[in-house]
Structures
1.
Amino acid sequence: MSPLSERIQEYLPLLVTGLWQTVAVTLLSLVLASALGLVWSIMRSSGNRWLELPARYIVEFLRGIPILVVLFYIYFVMPEIGLDLTAFQAGVVGLALTYSCYIGETFRGGIEAVDRGQVEAAKSIGMKHGKMMRRIVLPQAFRIALPPYGNNMVMLLKDSSQVSVISVAELTMQGKMLASSTFDNMTVFTMVAALYLCLTIPLNILMRRVELKMGASK
Amino acid sequence: MIRFENVHKSYGKHEVLKGIDAEVDKGQVACLIGASGSGKSTLLRCVNGLEDYQSGRILIDNEKVDAHAPSIHKIRTRVAMVFQRFNLFPHMTALENVMEGPVQVLAEPKAEVRARAEDHLRRVGLADKMDFYPSALSGGQQQRVAIARALAMRPEAILLDEPTSALDPEMVGEVLSVLRDLAEDHMTMLIVTHEIQFAREVASNVFFLDKGQIEEHGTAEEVLARPQNARTQEFLRRVTHPF
């Protein structure tokens, strides 16, 4: 076997292309999941049962299905009813749907943790529900929800490895292929783990910074 | 200006307001006093629809207050509220707190509102705290911002729910002096308070509530200095001589 440094150099380009796929899948599904999660949380705290109940059932339903099954369903079953998605698209949609529930619950927790007095103060200056949510409740709810939202982000990043089961060529997938062709499991998977840490550690540091900054202006 | 006609309210089986009849005229300062649980805060919160009531009527200049009707938003812009725990918006500075209602709800031009908000903050003695966030202000300062926030709506009346109860004793005075100043300007106010001395000085009317009913009402002098009702006498003895 060639020396370690040479093998690392040999594997790195392939793993880095996988890393970019991981970043792409994570960012796209994070944006979608956050938007959808915001919708769920606003529906659930709207005080209108026609909005509240559907959101509650959708979230309960999706949360009860393992992410792998969601991915298989979107990738293998949807084409049968005419919705043909590429592996990448299916991966993003599956992750986004699953994580919209977690993120939605995170946001809802934030909304509910906003002091009752804030709602009363907003009402007492004549604000209607929509404006009150936008101007008073949500800005405070985001601050409260920020630490758990940061966790959701890191979890999503790590769970993006799950889309390898539907053959999205992200980091874990590239690692698996490389390992099975070189049998150099130790080097390859150590590198894969290190590359994930290159993403998660800065992300954690960033979240902590943002939290501190938000906390200071409060 | 604010009229209560046979107002009843209950939480389930528990009746908290048992037929309230009262009236506050324009320019009057009415104080609601009574033991905790007597229903005085509930009554106040019914006036701007933060609580609903089951029967009777509350009228603001002949317009009925209905917490579930769309008209309630309009009513709330006419009758401002000051809370026991201030409830300032923590993500906005003092000035932004005061500007929020006129800009966002009344859709008034920002520059004009800003000038007015600064005046209000100056009036309550906070000229040097305008850009501070609530967390950097003392309780007394926060409550004065809350009063400025209420004034900025140019309300026809202000409701105050125990405005000094959450304050450290040394800060009660600064808030009461702002309220006294407003009373001298004939701002219509309905105040739930335990500050009997303050009520004696500024109130034009005093209502004594006990178990959801108005037991006694009259001028501050009548109710607080020469109470006729045995329950009023007992209550006043307890709050003025607690030992």
2.
Amino acid sequence: MSVAIRVIPCLDVAAGRVVKGVNFENLRDAGDPVELARIYAEQGADELTFLDVTATVDDRSTTYDVVRKTAEQVFIPLTVGGGVRSSDDVARLLASGADKIGVNSAAIARPTLIDEIADRFGAQVIVLSLDIKRSDSVPSGFVVTTHGGRRETTLDALDWAAEAIRRGAGELLVNSIDADGTKDGFDLELIGVMRSISRVPVIASGGAGRLEHFPEAIRAGADAVLAASVFHNRELTIGQVKDELRQDGALIR
Amino acid sequence: MTAKTVVVLDYGSGNIHSAAKALERAGARVELSRDRTRVMEADGLFVPGVGAFSAVMEQLRGVRGDELIDRRLAGGRPVLGICVGMQVMFDRGVERGIDTEGLGEWPGAVEQLPAEILPHMGWNVVDAPSDSVLFDGIRDERFYFVHSNAAQQWLLPPQSPLPAPRVTWADHDGPFIAAVENGPLSATQFHPEKSGEAGLRLLRNWIASL
């Protein structure tokens, strides 16, 4: 394998603005997603992910503007997730400049959404976003949740991921609800089991706090690492994470 | 010197706005079009392509893009195909068991990579010939790939006195063709418009060659 490990910063966007604190100096406007995207790209980000946490349909149209403006200035891949309910939503986001689309709860409610998107645009545009919690209610011990982890479904994470891949998901974004926000490191066991059942790339998410957490996730089987607050709060830079990965023997751009 | 004109073939496939912006950034005057005159008159034609081989071929034929590409190449007018826009230049593509006829500019089939993890997604290195125009001044850089299928053999024999095609290879659990420069027809399996500075430099090299 000679493809590089990817480091992906994630930005929450609502009504065209970055939400959740972003503490950068020298920003004209810390809430402008386009400017932040540009800075992360300059720091060496391998992709960018926008999570649209917009509540209303009106706000949604501002997200398309953000995607368009970002894609006009930042020439690295852009994934947009949040609120994607139909293949027409995907068409609009792709036309705005997104390269990949994250799907989550809408696909849980209606799994054929994945088939529809894959048939129309190819599997490579679909990132299945998984919010996973440890639970004894399912055989693997990992259950799929919705609403940011607040609601448990009856889906075993391994079964759901396998089904989604069969239907045409091209990548898995594996977010651990248990690890998210702890800064104690990724859920390595979860990454390992998801890797073992997946032929598509796996992105590890949730729990990054220190540099050594990133190579751990790669050794556990991740193809890419995603983080938000450690980058936004300037605790770690993209460059530091890539140096750490490189020293651990990973291939890095 | 006036800027070179590039038409991005607008036939319903791919992220054409990012491609157009990247080409502009690389110095071209860019237009999105499927109009025969505009396509024929441009200094360069950029052919994007995202999705299934069969769907891309259908969309291309729907706007007679196949004829436009053929006519340009017959007249020695430069064309650059990207991703599935490269794949369709081969004889045929086999995807999910469907065997689809391509444009047939190059012999051979585009088939699924024999890799453990697919799609091949991310930044990979390439092995370009030393006389490559596209990769001139770009060494040891990575480019962004996202695909599951590729041409894995180069079958076009040398046709003296024409210059030999320059073929660039990459590897994902096995070798595949990452780029071809063959007279007026060039193509890359990766996305230069999504490959940061390295990609912009490659586009600049292509535009300078028009």
